[in-house]
Amino acid sequence: MRVLSKSEFFLSLNKFLIKILFQISFLASSNAFFYWNRLMASVTADQIRKRLGLTIADISDEDVLAFRDEAAAFLSEETGKTLNAEDCTEAEANAIRNLAAIYCYCKITGGSAVGLDFTIGDLRVSPTAGKQLEFLKEQVERFIARQKRFGISLLEGP
Q: What is the enclosing helix (H) or strand (E) of 116?
């Protein structure tokens, strides 16, 4: 076994530590990227239609995405926080999906919606559909209340 000189020992130690630090920083950045991507969500037309069992035959992607953007704008105004339906937290995405689903249902039944006030129109609404709509509305109201109570999210950047 060869004995290392003091300078050889420190050079070996430095190389070893640099390798370890590089691996740690790589793992940390990979995990941060992974967790950041898991936290961000996007709201799609299919996700909105799925809330009430609607299909593309019931309402087009164009209409659904327009309602998605209206819902995001309304929620942004209510919470004082800019929401982007294509890049938001899962909680924000759920609120946008729920409100957009209510808007979609109002459109296909001939009703109307402004903010959280909506009418279903002249069609008879089954008790199940009425309960679903009320549930979605309550979820949106709870989201708004939480956002107003706790203010800006920790995930929101500058």
A: none
Task: Tell me the CB-side half-sphere exposure of residue 60, using CA atoms within 13 A.
Answer: 3
Q: Per-residue pLDDT tens for 98-125?
A: 999 988 888 887 765 555 455 444 444 4
Tokens describing residue 149: 């109570």
Q: Which of 42, 99, 76 is nearest to 147 (CA)?
A: 76
> Of the segments 7-11, 19-23, 109-113, which one has the largest average pLDDT value?
7-11
Sequence ranges of the domains in the chain: 1-40, 42-150
Return the number of other C-beta atoms located less than 10 Å from residue 5's C-beta: 8
Task: Check: CB of residue 43 under 8 Å from CB of residue 96.
Answer: yes
Nearest to 48 by CA among 13, 95, 117, 107: 95
